[in-house]
Protein 1
Amino acid sequence: MSKKRVYTFGNGKAEGKADMRNLLGGKGANLAEMNLIGVPVPPGFTITTEVCTEYNQLGRDQVVALLKPEVEAAIANVEQLTGTKFGDAKNPLLVSVRSGARASMPGMMDTILNLGLNDEAVEGIAAKSGNAWFAWDSYRRFVQMYGDVVLGLKPETKEDIDPFEEIMEERKHAKGIELDTEFTVDDLKDLVKRFKAAVKKQTGKDFPTCAWEQLWGAVMAVFDSWTNPRANYYRRLNNIPDEWGTAVNVQAMVFGNMGETSATGVAFTRDAATGEDVFNGEYLINAQGEDVVAGTRTPQNINVVGSRIWAEFQGVSEEERKSRYPSLEETMPELYKELDAVQQKLEEHYKDMQDMEFTIQSGKLWILQTRSGKRTAAAMVKIAMDLLREGKIDEKTALLRLEPNKLDELLHPVFDSIAVRSAKVLAKGLPASPGAATGQIVFFADEAAKFPQSILVRIETSPEDLEGMNIARGILTARGGMTSHAAVVARGMGKCCVSGAGGVKVDYRARTMTIEGKVYKEGEWISLNGSTGEVYEGEVLTRKPDMSGDFGLIMDLAAKFTKMDVRTNADSPKDAQIAKEFGAKGIGLCRTEHMFFEGHRIKAIREMILASTVDGRKRALNKLLPYQREDFEGIFEAMAGYGVTIRLLDPPLHEFVPHQLATQRELAEEMGVSVDVIKAKVDSLEEFNPMLGHRGCRLGNTFPEITEMQTRAIIEAALNLKAKGIDARPEIMVPLIGTVKEFDMQAGIIRGTANKVFEERGDKIDYLLGTMIEIPRAALTADLVAAEADFFSFGTNDLTQMTFGYSRDDIGTFLPIYLDKGILKHDPFQVLDQEGVGQLVQMGTQKGRSVKPDLKVGICGEHGGEPSSVKFCHRVGMNYVSCSPYRVPIARLAAAQAAIE
Ligand code: PEP
Ligand code: MG
């Protein structure tokens, strides 16, 4: 049998179902499933994601030929179910064409509505509906959408204006009207004429009148949109593979713009911002699809409760609310009830919060889409725990529902309660995405990086702004509701957002915003509270939120299933403390060099480096000893009862010496030598490739007195704490070994020094002695190394650097191009390259354990806090991962998920 490329659905029947999302995309699979469970869905069909891949390989003509028989049959099925005819003048079938990938990519792909209209069909629709205005408005929208998306008239840069918008604006201006709804039928006819002329002018071709030609054009445009820059960017941001492709959904149109008994909207089964179990959403009467999210008209709440809260935020009186902004519950109570029943059914069926699109056509409700709703981290946690408490899902499912990286949002700042009291509120919008942000105003997304902390201020955002939204600290829009592009995307990113702040007037040309007559320029500071919708003047102090309740329960649950411990990378008692509060069980990496930069330490270390004799070096090291000992005491105390891995000095020495003449002079004076002596020494430390130079254990092996001093400081600190009854558990770690000899040599010095201290003190303490595996040769010879070492810690930063041969510090010049061209899928310094570097990690672990089965193995490179890498570490059988304090909860959750998966 030949391959099936098209799956039909309609009237309670479907060829697909929910678990076919890889083939049908999320939207297509759910449209099929909704049919099967009796939710009213307009009939249609889905072209599979595999066809997108075929399209990219074979091109348009071959793919059309392959699809034709199935698509023709599927259209015939829709014709039969709707009693209409595709391409007919009197009784035309109109369809929507939408993309739908496996993972939801909101706003990434373009949609075309009302396809099938032409100069004859529009009259047919007008006659059939008895509503010429509706017919012509639909036609006007279709020509515009099709022109923008399929024929490429949509402007590419922000300076250019959409030609269709320009024509509409001209017309409105000439007539002295403001809203699209104020156009007359004649206006609409004229607009269509001018739109088509604009198409002809720009493309040299007539607007296609044949429904089939329109359909194929639209289908191919959806496939093309899979590789547009914003889709590419979204995929990279969310780790979605390029090869997945998008499906295409073709569905009979239903119209929310057929008059006052028609409407369209979006609804959520629970609150996407807080996770509360309240049905909510927004709608517009007499409107079509994109109107609700585009922010051109202010959508209204579907239920009375939501509507009242909205009115309060906006300062709208109850009377005005009822007359001007009534809820669906008030305008169409029966349909609201029906919608409420559908949402309950959908949530019960999918056992997760759903985000639905609906349309009411002349009093009949249709569901156009349902999917797992995007939500903030707070909502993600609350919904998972609520569903667990409600008995709808089990513990494992609750944990798997959580996106580890998203937990980061919960650690995001809130305003300092004192500071915010004296802050001046400039404006109020909708609390679109919670959190607090303070930063400098930028007006264009591609300029978001202009300031280290920026707030993106837009009239409204669009998918083109995605990258800038991700960079900005917060987003403020003048238009748009809770389901506007800005709001939905910001919530997905966990970014603070205030939307629909009507009091803010943005002037892109002047790069200013005006609030109550006062002008704010680019670069000025403002602050946003995404939880209340308030916009403040100036910079307002923010602070970290406290975490308790469901967050704590999630972490407890994670602990129940996890097999790996999570440690932290910390160089100070403060960081150690934070990490411990997040549940870190020990320190996996304490980089001792970071302690050298503070106060008098740097002077002593410089003296050590610049000394020309062993004695001179020892004298300087003796000055450092008390500082180091004190630092270690602090860290051991903060992590009492847990292992603390202290790494011996690692970076090349030239990082510590002064490179500026003024500082060199100062140092020369202090040391009583000439500045030339200092300069000569600094020059002699210069290396062509310091990352591969005199660093790591090479330092300790050439200057054993450094290792001696550090070991002494560690052991003495531990003994001092022991004397105070504090349980210090030192683990001494040798960096950057490539041969077992390098390790053995260091081990000899460390053991010798420790024994000496034990003798001096007449007391002992247990300690571990291990090494980092961060040079490929160390991984390849791990069996030899393990014979001598108590533990391995994979330093995947250096291991990645040396396996790829990419300099950690210079990758920035070519990485963006490599990601763009698909040579690399991710930055390998963020996401562990399991295929290559991962092999060394696996081999090193296996070889090590082949001679020492209970060898303790961990990871301390940046990858230790990245979920997919953490899961890899679990599969390799590591004992622990170690990451920066704020990533500890993320790693804990990922580790638990790995164990469950
Ligand atoms: C590593 O190389 O992975 C590591 C943790 O050490 P550093 O980043 O300090 O080189
Ligand atoms: Mg390293």
Note: The radius of gyration is 32 Å.
Protein 2
Amino acid sequence: MTGLSEFAEAIAKGALRVVDLTHTLDPDFPVIILPPEFGQCARFRMEEISAYDHRGPAWKWHNISMSEHTGTHFDAPSHWISGRDVPYGSVDEISPDRLIGAVVVIDCSAGAAENDDHELTVEIIHAWETEHGPVPRDAWVLMRTDWSKRRGADYLNMRDDGPHSPGPTPDAIRYLIEERDIRGFGTETIGTDAGQGSHYTPPYPAHFYLHGAGKFGLQCLNNLDQLPPTGALLVAAPLKIKGGTGSPLRVLAVVPS
Ligand code: 23J
Ligand code: MN
């Protein structure tokens, strides 16, 4: 056999735990705010069509709308100019086998608690690898900051000079791509880049390098404190939007109990 019946049984018996890495889609959940000269991301909206009433006596349903980049969401290569010509670069074109894979977690929560602009550096990745071994090829790498525990204005953390939230340095992202050939990079913050990521060279280096190399992004993740550093499996399957640059989605991790 393939082990799949054992896998299903392990989940049913609780030997494997399924952790939901998704925030609830809610009109109050913050969206990224870009400088005013740019187009803006729409919040989640829900409108009642009927609720067991004269509009539909036996059924309740809603119309919903949002951006591709609202809430817990997936970034495809075509989201960034560096990835505009990447083959199979939009969400509808990604091969389904790339939507399930290994995941490792780098815990940056202590640094992020001390400094809103805390950076994931190559040195921090090296220290992680000394403890846990090399980041596996084709794995998702998630940056834990505990930012998902923040609520309201503290999440974007907007100041006069723009948003302040942790993120990777350009060198750290290049290391993960060029030396480790990761599948994608995910964060608990509003972007894969730091709040001040527009000030790096290039601007928004995580978006620029990841998507230029055909890698994926995950943002606004939840519950990363419930994941082990290595050994979990990630399921991240965006909606099949024709030509879509990203999508809200349910992100699940399967972890040993
Ligand atoms: C557009 C422009 C800049 C950024 C973003 C979107 C995101 O973070 C996103 O949701 O992909 S930084
Ligand atoms: Mn995005």
Note: The two ends are 23 Å apart (CA to CA).
Protein 3
Amino acid sequence: MSQHGIHHVTAIAGPASRNVGFYTRTLGLRLVKRTVNFDDPGTWHLYYGDEAGAPGTILTFFPWEHAAPGRLGVGETQETVFRVPEGAIGYWTHRFLEKGVAFDPIDKRFGETVLAFRDPDGMRLALVAVPGAEAEPGWSAGEVPAEHAIRGFHSVSLLLEEAAPTGAVLTDVLGFAQGATEGSVTRFQVPGTAMGGIVDIRPVGGFLKPRPGAGTVHHVAFRAADDAEEAAMAQKLRENHRIATTEQKDRNYFRSIYFREPGHVLFEIATDQPGFAVDEAPAALGQALKLPDFLEGHRSRIEGLLPSLGEPA
Ligand code: ZN
């Protein structure tokens, strides 16, 4: 059966070693792939996720050593939200205090407990306490115990001029259903999907335009089971919404098409197949620089260009 929801989120970061330290040590995610930006091979593309890098758990970055900070604006992803077990919020509050991570007072949204925080580039992140998540497996490399570990994505929120046109794409093409509204925020949810199954839309007509840069989300990718489902989604976008997608691009770990949704956020549709174990053993994920075949011949030059990652957890 097809699984819908968020496949991955890709953001822009400052220095790569700081990014690796924060996401693997402070947040305890697994670095599941170290590769390069296929469109800019002198730049890292780092993937973090659960043990396997399952769809719905993957946060990826293009780190640039001297990236200027971005500014949040309308037509952009506002916040990227992870799931944690219900009993873990206290642990994380302590950890953020101890590690000097900037966070907001604990909040309630749609009846759930939320701890919003920022990464070292100012990227807006949050943890949501989810009942039952403690029964799901949690990855641990040591610092963050498995019982408190992040369990994939909860949601992203989008800052848009208006909710309806984007909502129509989410519901007609990407497998979401319109849910509750709280204040100005409307929740869209994939029925029966816990991991990465929520997109919240916050309409803010007339807000500032975004400035891309460190700490901003580059795009959000949604799941398609395989090439056939992805092609069917592209056809629906074209026929029902007059939205053209790019041709399919082979990203080695998934195959992707891209489009601007009506609110101007860059969306991607990515296949669940083949996944991160396609070019290294599951136990060794993220330990070596992996390159697609078309870049393998340039390996030594690429290795010379890439800044040090430091030591991941
Ligand atoms: Zn992507």
Note: The helical segments are 16-26, 89-99, 164-172, 227-241, 293-296, 299-305.
Protein 4
Amino acid sequence: MPVAIPRATIKRLFIYCRALLESRETEVISSEELSQLTGFTAAQIRKDLTYFGQFGTPGRGYTIKDLTHQLKAILGIDREWEVALVGVGNMGRALVAYEGLKTQGFKVTQLFDSDINKTGMFCAGLKIKDIKTIKEEIQNSAVKIAVLAVPANAAQEVTNLLLEAWGISAEGGSASGGKAILNFAPTRIVVPAGVNVLNIDITNELTRLSYYLVQPT
Ligand code: NAI
């Protein structure tokens, strides 16, 4: 059975990868140097990497080019992902305008909204399509990732439309591989197994910060 990789490890891999991309002027990096750049211990870095096989040479370190290449492949950021965004309001517009998405390989190619005052208009060079057309549009695209920036009471309905568009039944499984949803709506959405959902909530993060303000370490 394949070893389950802890989510915390995956999060750290992104941080290692970013640090490596920023240290391109040297050829080799040791786990101690990577530790200084990322704030994680060298032992933690070595442990995280061993989940994926043998990297680097003992006593010499890692070849930056090779490790970056391998980490990008592991994280699936060695390719471009087409992304659909549903809900072109304040949050949706800010996300589409964010250049960092494209530079990290996430290209928003489809925008959907239900507001007739928005559909047919353009945002960041993309036409906002009517949510009613999402099934045919997604079916004819390479979109495997959707971002939900709709109000909480519309999130499940939009999710169901997406699942239908992807040909995913209530029992899960899709003819064309895994799918993912990044959900900004402050509600839990129900999806079958095989669909990855990541809920983003800035308020949660602020709550964590406020905790550290009242409980200084
Ligand atoms: P907004 O009201 O400006 O935009 C929502 C958009 O969704 C509108 O354009 C609306 O026409 C569209 N919409 C509504 N029902 C729809 C449907 N069934 N299908 C397609 N489009 C639909 O709201 P805003 O400020 O952009 O927030 C969007 C969501 O993000 C909300 O759920 C909000 O609570 C959440 N949010 C989350 C944050 C976070 O940290 N995760 C931070 C800020 C907002």
Note: The pocket of NAI is lined by residues 86-92, 112-115, 118, 131, 149-152, 154, 157-158, 184-186, 200-202 (CB under 6 Å).
